[in-house]
Amino acid sequence: MHSSAKGQTKTSQQEVVSKEWKLEPEHEFRFEVDFGTTVNLKLISGTAEIFGTEIGIGHEYEFSGRKIALFTWHGCTIEIKGTCSVEYVANETPMTSYLNMHIALEQCREAAKSKDEQGPKVMIVGPEDVGKTSLSKLLLSYAIRHGRQPLFINLDSNEGSITMPGTLTATPINHIIDVEEGFGSSATTAPSFSSSFMPMVFYYGYPDPSENVKLYKVLTKKLADNVSRRLVEDEVARVSGIVIDTGGLVDSTGYEIIQHCVDIFNVNIIIVLGHERLYSDMARLYKERNDVNVVKLSKSGGVVNRDNAFRRQAQMRKIREYFYGLPKFELSPCSTLINLNDISIYRVGVGSLAPSSALPIGIDRKVSETQLVKVEPDDTLLHSILAISTANNSDEQSLLVSTVIGFIYVSHVDISKQKMTILSPSPGRLPKQYLIMGSYKWMES
Amino acid sequence: MANSEIDLESVRQDYLASLQDLTFNSKPIITNLTIIAQENINAARAIVQAIEEQIRTCPPQHKLPVLYLLDSISKNVGGTYIMLFSRNLYQTFMDTYNSVEQATKSKLERVLATWKSGPTGNPVYSSEVTGPIEKTLSKQQMRYQSRGSIDGGRTHIHINPNFLSGINSNSLTSYQQAQQLQQVQQVQQVQQVQQVQQVQQVQQAQQPIQQTSNVWVDAARYNSGTSAFPASAPTRQGFYNTTQFANKPIIQQNQVFVPPPEQQRLLQECQALILQRQQYALRNPSDLQNQSQIVNLQQLSEVLQKASLTVDQIQQVRQLFASFNQMINPATVQAQGQSIISPSFPNLTQSLGPPISITGSLISQPHPGSIPVRSPVQQPPSSIPRPQPPHSLLADPNALVKNLIDFGLLTNTSTNLGNVGYTGRNNTPTPPPSNSVSTEPPLSTVKSVMGLEKIQLTSNDIQRKHEGVVAVIYDALPRQCKQCGFRYSGDDEGKAKMDAHLDWHFRQNRRMKEKSKKAQSRSWFVSDEDWIHSRESDTKNSATPAFFDFDSGTTKNITGGNNTNIQTNRRDELFNESTVIVPLDPEKASKPCPICQEKFQCFWNDTDEEWLFRNAVEVDGVIYHATCHADALKNQENAKLAEIENTSSPPVLGKRKASPEHISDMPKRPALIS
Fold this sequence. Notes:
The structure holds two protein chains of two kinds. Chain A folds into three domains: 18-90, Jelly Rolls (Sandwich); 94-297, Rossmann fold (3-Layer(aba) Sandwich); 333-353 and 365-441, Elongation Factor Tu (Ef-tu), domain 3 (Beta Barrel), CATH 2.40.30. Chain A contains eight helices and 27 strands. Chain A has helices at residues 95-115, 132-145, 213-233, 235-240, 252-265, 276-285, 308-324, 396-400; strands at 18-23, 27-33, 39-46, 49-50, 53-54, 60-63, 66-72, 76-81, 86-90, 121-125, 151-154, 167-172, 185-186, 196-197, 200-203, 242-245, 269-273, 293-297, 325-326, 329-330, 334-339, 344-348, 372-375, 384-389, 404-414, 419-424, 434-441. In chain A, the strands form six sheets. A seven-stranded mixed sheet of chain A has the order 15-12-11-16-10-17-18, sandwiched between helices. In chain A, strand 4 and strand 5 form a beta hairpin. In chain A, helix 1 packs across helix 2 (132-145) and helix 3 (213-233) runs parallel beside helix 5. Among the domains of chain B are: 1-141, Alpha Horseshoe (Serine Threonine Protein Phosphatase 5, Tetratricopeptide repeat); 259-320; 577-637, no CATH class. Helices cover 59% and strands 3% of the residues of chain B. Chain B has 31 helices and seven strands. Chain B has helices at residues 8-19, 27-39, 44-57, 60-76, 80-99, 102-116, 127-146, 148-152, 161-168, 172-206, 209-226, 242-254, 261-283, 288-306, 311-326, 334-337, 344-358, 397-406, 409-423, 434-438, 459-463, 469-473, 492-515, 528-533, 536-540, 552-559, 563-577, 586-590, 626-642, 652-658, 660-665; strands at 479-480, 487-488, 580-581, 602-605, 610-613, 616-619, 622-625. In chain B, the strands form three sheets. In chain B, strands 3-5-4 form a three-stranded antiparallel sheet, with no helix packed on it. Chain B has a two-stranded antiparallel sheet with strand order 1-2. A two-stranded antiparallel ribbon of chain B has the order 6-7. In chain B, a hairpin with a 4-residue loop joins strand 4 (602-605) and strand 5. The two termini of chain B are 40 Å apart. Residues 1-5, 147-179, 202-256, 328-396, 405-444, 537-568 and 643-674 of chain B have low confidence and may be disordered. The interface between A and B is large, with 97 and 78 residues.
């Protein structure tokens, strides 16, 4: 952490560094804020947007543990309070092409509306750290400006944009995306400042699709089915279309998954972000298909490589956020003691239970990737994140493809008393008894 | 996390602190407090203590809502709470009853009546508990009846929740009523405000500042959008933030900006022009264009005083003045001024005004003196077609103002203006909000998405620069929310959406305030079937648990706010005005509505000096609820329209009673607060 140079006033411990930046039109101010520090940003004049969401003049926005790009089409003056670990102004951005993309999508939507067809279904693919999520956010935010309500499909289980890491979600984006919260979060009993979304959540449980491709496909298929059912009923969303964000899919498994998703979601626009080879492969793959457009966009120079430590931290924070909310809007989860007899915990896939070296010679490890295995409660549960399934019975067909209603965190297991202490987002008893265990662990700090 | 050992005392303290908000009949607060009570049923003893203490110690006018809370907890949570409340119920109830006004007394009686036969028909409190209260009441009532008319003639503040729900729907009439109500309440408010401020200040000291400051920052922003009209726009931040809020503008004002000499000369010129125009306005008071020019000039002069202009801008201002001076006959300038349509002003008063009166008694009343006034500044009719300005853009004040806004000067200034207006209220009317005036784009330059050239979905076309694309997401959407920066189009649809949006902000802010001190938790996600079938309005408001309904209309309006509900609400309001004189025959008077089997609500009408049934009609000697009767008629009509031949249209009552949707409606309408 180093302090910045110009126009700063530092009188006491509490007085924070404050300085003004003046941006020319179509310039971008990029700044990074470390975890544990906060930076306040205020737009003094002009217009500015953060990932497509315009910010209001005079309002203070607070950021912590984020890497943010503030772009201005018309020029602006901003005030930054606090210490950023990185801050600079860039004038080369791909924003023009991103906006063109939006306009093109908007034209598709208008056309769809007049012909009573389905709006554009966009899938954003590319390697990690090219700004796929930021581009999704931007396209969604721009769509919101035109009164659209697109569905946002998050297939990047690593990130858990709206809920938790390890999830696959579909969320109607029906209001402004809060710039402070990253992507907004799911509903709380509280009136959060602006964003609370209503996601449909499937729990995949692993950061990488390749860890259990079959399960990933089964869940995405079910997700896609539900989405198309909603699109039939929801006229606004039908015209607005969907935006699919994916994880870094550039290997052969990635290609397989991309094709799978294009099929199940009837994707008609594939945006390849920042990866020439992937673009040419996709263009070749869908050359014969008139209904699928493959478009290449360049990544923003502001995109930074997030190392594993940052990703891990972001995941941990997302989990914390699920239970405790944000500093500006705190939630009170509820710690309760539950009977181990009252719940049943399952894992999906036998293979994940034991390393192959521990298996007898000659036994095929992956009997079935989608087989449900009951987990006998023991100390391994400690610090796990468990998803609560909506299923009412344990039969494989329904439990496997059920959505989840939420997550609990196991803070203590007492085998002798057959009890377990959990952290639950809501007070009261657990609404359902079937829990699904993934690979995520968390330590309350 | 140590939940296992609950510190009862701290629960009591917390709950007591939360109770300080419950100073008027607010369903959201009551709902919320009920939920908290339910969630902390382990600490029921502490909560009961807190409620009893609050009833005992709070000012008489605040007792009723707390008692409603008691009622709500008893009915919705029940269990332990019933037992705990029973112990002191006589004391609690009678203390309240004896310290309140007559109107409130009758409400208390209704509460008591519902305890005898709860929503399910079973008594909420056993007759052992309610019996002694009733006995005492009837004794007192006999005394009261004998001098009823004297008491009834007194002016009292009667907050009818139905009426309040009507306000929520932006109804004009209720708005006006609200004004009157507020005037009446003013004196009381002074008192209340002081009290609550004290309480809140103490609370603030205890709370983590972060939370409250978030709330007030936002409230202050909302305020800045409106308070350009000091006399007109009621400031809407909760006054428990007043102290903090007041600091902000003061700080801003202290930063005295000394304009450079060049600018000072301009300022003098500008003020001279204003003077000249005002003199003209005196001679031609009907000339709206001139007035709007004055407004523009006043804004300009504000800018000149507050912000430093660039050389170019100064040049432009100078040219503008030159062109002004050239026009010997001010009437020729008319064309430019006409475009001043200030849509956001009526929006704001419409959308902000009424909910304020809801919270009327307390939540959002920073100063007792701020009575909403409809419109101090005369609105130029927006329907006048705008002729193309014959002059160069430089001579167009709007263009200049727009230019200034592009540099952020004017918006800034209007915020300052607002704050100035806020601190020094009762000044002469300040100009209408500049944002709507000046951000209105020259229509010809902004194209719709389809008006732009078609952008092909090819990598080349996407990379290319296209004309007018930025305008589509900025200038085409001139109405900008001051709170979150979100934009809406300039047409009527955009106006309606902006109204709804501001309402939503207001609700959010209010709820933030109400709930900021209380424990919140994340909701469970919806199941996939619910997700498929739920829609925007559901999801947006899912944050409000539909825990219980005092009145279906009110709840839906607060949570949903969609049109049909507002209509229902208005309709309910209309029916509420339909009254029937309470029959002299006590047997007939005690009969419930034959349709819904619920009792009528009676109230004393000052003007007629009669006891009346609210929401009632008399048909063929039988009294029905006006709403029930209308529903029944409508059903009958529908049945006729559907031409169901085989089931010959059943009699009104039979059909209503049998209809399942009616039965499902029933628990929603305990007669208590409706």
